[in-house]
Design a protein that fits this description.
The complex is a heterodimer of chains A (about 120) and B (about 900). Helix content of chain A is about 55%, strand content about 15%. By secondary structure, chain A is an alpha+beta fold. Chain A has a 3-stranded antiparallel beta sheet. In chain A, helix 1 packs across helix 3. Chain A is elongated, with a radius of gyration of 18 Å. In chain A, a hairpin with a 5-residue loop joins strand 2 and strand 3. Chain A has a single domain, classed as Winged helix-like DNA-binding domain superfamily/Winged helix DNA-binding domain (Arc Repressor Mutant, subunit A), CATH 1.10.10.10. Chain A has 4 helices and 3 strands; from the N terminus they run H-E-H-H-E-E-H. With about 900 residues, chain B is α+β, with helices and mostly antiparallel strands. Chain B folds into 4 domains: about 80 residues; about 200 residues, no CATH class; about 170 residues, no CATH class; about 190 residues, no CATH class. Helix content of chain B is about 50%, strand content about 15%. In chain B, helix 16 packs antiparallel against helix 25. The longest helix of chain B is centred in the first third of the chain and has 41 residues. Chain B is globular, with a radius of gyration of 39 Å. The chains are: A alpha+beta (about 120), B alpha+beta (about 900). Chains A and B meet through helix 2, helix 3, strand 2 and strand 3 of A and strand 1, helix 1 and helix 3 of B.
Chain lengths: ~120, ~900
């Protein structure tokens, strides 16, 4: 696996999971499917990598887990956002947007910056 | 998400299983994937392979899952336990708050028991367990001859012996010592207004280096400074520096005036060093000066020896080394025949052992006493909790029915006792702090290291230990009894006749009997110690301490020759005594250089004229150089005549001897008029005085000899005044009279002789008072225990009593019945306690003085006290019982 891509994933997977769970509790498989569909297969390389991320988030208290029945009546573990997780998501989104805006500004520049005035 | 129906929740019946959870979760994922692939048209087997390929490393993920799961499970369990405990504590506060008088009494009992335990632990820790306050103090040894009857002179060494010992021994890093013959207030601090008395001690120049004592300012003495000819210097004790010189930061290098001569201060010692606390309990030493051994060579035994062993040297090796060199040591190198005088007399023992060894037994006894108090308090509390537990049986039954496990209920009960004992410990710590502060300032108690007493980390650790231990002993029994009981049984109305209640009552009665027995043991021990103390006070000291007081007198008898000096001294003393005797209220006055129960010395062994004794057969009597009138002033009985001022330098040489000496010299004859030979000098015995207790109140007495100041040189002068008024009222006029004759006279303390005696018996008084206080506490707790049980059983039997009274029982009959059951408990406890006391009394017999461990009055007194207390604590509930209104009782049920 491309290591650069993996590193990228670790940083963003958590926030993607939090985002996906905003619409309600889901089990791991559903999360994989949604991730795949919404990112057009771009983000998730191996489905297995999702689970450690889920457990970490659960351990941190950002997610709550509960056993329930899936659509076709199988016992599955459902994850839901805790208030703490919701707060964390808002924070991450803001950080991400600020970061993206800054990167976009630099990349989208059309002329070199003006020399800074010496004070 | 749909919740799992009830019937499918069986899988985690036996507790959480993180590994299985992970497996379930992952297999659900794979299964769902396979289903989807099959729908898309994959063959089932190919679908499985594809699902696993897309998943990645299944086993690695599984491992991570198990690890995280276990971590979470652990944390959850801890959180549950904590929240349960918080709940228990909250519940405990609620239950205790509902019964504040129970809580208050329990906490008070615990505070008393735990507080005394902490205080005594601190004393024991300071005196016995903790090392002496010197670095590597385990290597410090005290070298002294085995104890004999001839006082300090036989417990010390000559200057030559010290030097030879230091040179020849091989096991010491260094050896030092100090001048043993120092009296309190031996100096006058002059040049600063009125002369003030000060106490100095001469130490060999390496003294502080050997002990490891550092100066806070300036320096210690150097080896050259104990040679003759060097100018006068001194080190200040920290307390003296603070008190007398207001902590003057520039004191080093300044000169002060002692006895009118300038002395330069070279340093101030650290606060942690208290010479008196270690070497002469209760005494304070203000300054230290270097001892010039050359000046002391011909003065006989004068120094004590303290050594610091090389690392790794054992006590046995030190003793071997001392025995090896003892034959090569001279008493005085000028006299070859004194070689080997110290054979068998050089015995090293740990300094710690010398300082506190004598107290070991007393301290252990004290420790046991407070341990017993703790046990009594624990039993008492156990009893109270048991009574409450029975009253709360229904509450526990309901909790049990609602799902609380037995473990949980026992935990709840233990939590209650822990909360109680913690509160008791906190209060007890406060109590101990007060006790310790008070004890540390008992300067008049001649116990070593007392001033260094404090509550330290170890004492705090002990507090926690005691609190938890107490909670265990008094919480576990009620807890276990509740847990072993049948909860269903309790849920039914457990009326007064119920079997469980009666069983509990038996347990409670047994506890009370045990408690009374313990109190009994304490009372007997305290009683025996009290009897011993009274016996000690009754000892005929050979002098009358009441209505006599002493003051140290300053005088100047310097004269060109010894004879002129003697004559001058005689005149000065005669003048002083005449002047003081003329004061109103003074019955007699006289002087001596040493007072009883203090320091002392011996010179040589006089021989009765015309008799032949084998060497070593005659004792070396303790020597006192006195003025006429001293014998009468101190109240010593005598026959023959006292010295008179006519017994001058040129008159016949006269002495007084004590009865013990007379018995040795002239057995069966009257010694008055006989001659004692000291070398060629003939001394006529003009009188025989009673034996005076010279060293201890409790020990025996040896030979004593008295010389007149006009014929021998006194070491100092202690004026003793016998008065018809309380001594304190004369202090000012005596001092004024002394000042008129000698303006240099310092304002020394006018000390009642009784305080000297009090000081000598102070350790015994100290231990006796403490043990007596603990016994009183034990008795009180036992009384509370009896009261609790009787009072409870009266409440329980209220109905029965009511019925009996309705059937015609009289008030007296009811009272008698309650009292009888009380006394039955007390008697059972006393029988058990007497047996215990007999055993314990044997153990403490070495602490007793002239009192048998079978002392009947003590046992009778104990029995009387216990019966009285039991009767009182039974009478109160008995009265209540007889006040029961039969109609009300019958109606209420």
């Amino acid at each position: 696996m491309d290591t650069a891509k993996l590193e990228f994933l670790r940083g963003t997977l958590d926030v993607l999971i939090l985002k996906i769970l905003v619409w309600g509790p889901l089990h791991g498989y559903a999360i994989t499917n949604l991730l795949r569909r919404q990112s057009d297969d771009a983000l998730l390389l191996e489905e297995g990598t999702l689970y450690p991320a889920l457990w970490r988030l659960e351990n941190k208290g950002l997610l709550d887990a509960e056993w329930g029945l899936s659509e076709n009546n199988r016992k599955a573990k459902f994850y839901r956002l805790t208030p703490e997780g919701r707060r964390q998501l808002r924070h991450e989104v803001r950080t991400w947007e600020a970061y993206a805006a800054a990167v976009a500004k630099v990349l989208g520049a059309t002329h070199p910056p003006l020399p800074e005035e010496m004070g | 998400m749909t919740p799992i129906p009830l019937w499918r929740r069986y899988s985690r019946l036996f507790g959480p299983d993180p590994a299985a959870d992970v497996k379930d979760e992952l297999s659900f994922h794979l299964q769902a994937k396979i289903d989807d692939l099959v729908i898309q048209g994959w063959a089932p087997e190919a679908a499985r392979q594809e699902a696993e390929r897309q998943f990645g490393d299944l086993r690695a993920v599984q491992q991570i899952g198990v690890r995280i799961g276990e971590k979470m499970e652990r944390r959850k369990r801890l959180k549950d336990y904590w929240s349960d405990s918080v709940q228990d504590v909250r519940y405990t506060f609620r239950t205790l708050g509902r019964d504040p008088s129970f809580a208050a009494i329990s906490i008070l009992i615990l505070a008393l028991a735990i507080g005394t335990n902490i205080a005594v632990f601190s004393v024991v820790n300071t005196l016995l367990l903790r090392p002496l306050p010197f670095p590597d103090s385990s290597r410090l040894v005290w070298i002294a001859p085995p104890p004999t009857g001839c006082g300090l002179s036989c417990a010390t060494y000559s200057a030559d012996a010290y030097e030879e010992f230091r040179e020849q021994s091989r096991v010491y890093q260094d050896v030092t010592g100090y001048m043993a013959f120092t009296t309190p207030d031996n100096l006058r601090l002059t040049g600063r207004g009125e002369p003030e008395p000060a106490t100095s001690i001469e130490v060999i120049s390496n003294f502080f280096q050997v002990l490891g004592v550092q100066p806070v300012m300036g320096r210690l003495f150097t080896a050259e400074e104990s040679r003759s000819g060097s100018h006068s210097i001194a080190l200040l004790a920290n307390a003296y520096w603070r008190r007398q010189f207001a902590s003057d930061p520039a004191i080093v290098g300044k000169a002060i005036e002692l006895n009118g001569a300038p002395v330069t201060i070279v340093g101030v010692l650290t606060d942690s060093f208290d010479f008196g606390a270690v070497f002469s309990p209760g005494a304070k030493v203000d300054l230290f000066t270097p001892l010039d051994l050359n000046l002391e060579r011909d003065w006989g035994n004068i120094v004590t020896i303290v050594g610091r062993l090389k690392p790794g040297v054992t006590g046995a090796q030190a003793l071997d080394d001392a025995n090896r060199i003892a034959p090569n040591i001279y008493f005085n190198v000028k006299y070859p025949q004194t070689l080997g005088r110290y054979k068998g007399d050089l015995i090293p023992r740990p300094l710690k052992d010398y300082v506190t060894g004598k107290l070991r037994r007393s301290l252990i006894a004290l420790w046991c006493a407070v341990g017993t108090i703790l046990l009594i308090a624990g039993v008492n509390l156990s009893n109270l909790l048991l009574a409450r537990a029975i009253a709360r049986a229904k509450e526990f039954a309901v909790r049990g029915a609602l799902g609380a496990s037995r473990g949980r209920i026992v935990r709840q009960l233990l939590m209650e006792s822990l909360v109680l004992s913690s509160a008791g410990a906190v209060l007890g710590l406060g109590l101990a702090l007060m006790l310790i502060a008070w004890l540390a300032h008992q300067g008049s108690v001649a116990l070593p290291l007392l001033s260094t007493l404090r509550i330290d980390g170890q004492a705090l650790g002990w507090t926690v230990l005691v609190a938890v231990f107490t909670a265990m002993i008094f919480g576990l029994l009620p807890g276990l009894r509740i847990a072993s009981g049948n909860l269903q049984e309790m849920l039914k109305d457990s009326g007064p006749g119920a079997g469980l209640g009666r069983k509990h009552e038996r347990v409670r009665a047994a506890l009370v009997i045990f408690e009374v027995a313990l109190a009994c043991v304490l009372l007997v021990s305290a009683g025996l110690l009290l009897r011993s103390f009274v016996k000690v006070l009754d000892v005929d000291l050979g002098f009358q301490p009441d209505r006599a007081a002493s003051i140290k007198v300053d005088y100047d008898d310097s004269a060109p020759s010894e004879e002129a000096s003697q004559a001058k001294r005689g005149e000065i003393f005669q003048q002083i005594i005449a002047r003081v005797s003329a004061l109103p209220g003074v019955q007699a006055a006289g002087m001596s250089d040493y007072l009883p129960l203090g320091p002392n010395r011996e010179w040589d062994s006089p021989v009765p004229k015309g008799k032949i004794f084998s060497p070593g057969e005659l004792p070396a009597p303790l020597v006192y150089v006195i003025t006429p009138g001293f014998i009468r002033a101190l109240g010593i009985r005598m026959h023959g005549r006292d010295f008179t001022w006519a017994d001058g330098t040129h008159g016949e040489r006269v002495v007084l001897i004590n009865a013990s000496a007379a018995r040795v010299y002239w057995p069966g004859e009257d010694a008055v008029g006989k001659i004692l030979m000291r070398g060629q000098e003939e001394d006529r015995v003009v009188g025989v005085v009673d034996d005076v207790h010279e060293e201890t109140v409790e020990g025996g007495t040896g030979s004593q000899i008295y010389y007149p100041v006009m014929q021998q040189g006194p070491a100092s002068a202690q004026l003793v005044v016998r008065t018809s008024l309380p001594p304190a009222t004369l202090a000012a006029s005596v001092l004024r009279a002394l000042r008129e004759l000698n303006p240099k006279q310092p304002s020394a303390e006018f000390r009642p002789i009784q305080t000297i005696v009090d000081r000598a018996v102070s350790p015994r008084r100290f231990f006796m008072l403490l043990v007596a206080a603990f016994a009183g506490l034990g008795l009180l707790l036992a009384a509370l225990g009896i009261y609790g049980v009787i009072s409870y059983s009266v409440t329980q039997q209220g109905q029965a009593i009511g019925i009996r009274m309705a059937l015609g029982a009289s008030v007296g009959q009811v009272q008698r019945q309650v009292l009888t059951s009380t006394l039955r408990l007390a008697l059972a406890g006393m029988v058990l306690g007497t047996l215990g006391a007999l055993a314990v009394a044997r153990l403490i017999s070495s602490l007793l003085f002239a009192t048998s461990s079978w002392d009947l009055p003590t046992y009778l007194g104990m029995a009387l006290a216990l019966l009285l207390v039991a009767a009182i604590s039974g009478y109160i509930p008995a009265r209540r019982a007889s006040g029961v209104n039969p109609m009300e009782v019958l109606r209420s049920n």
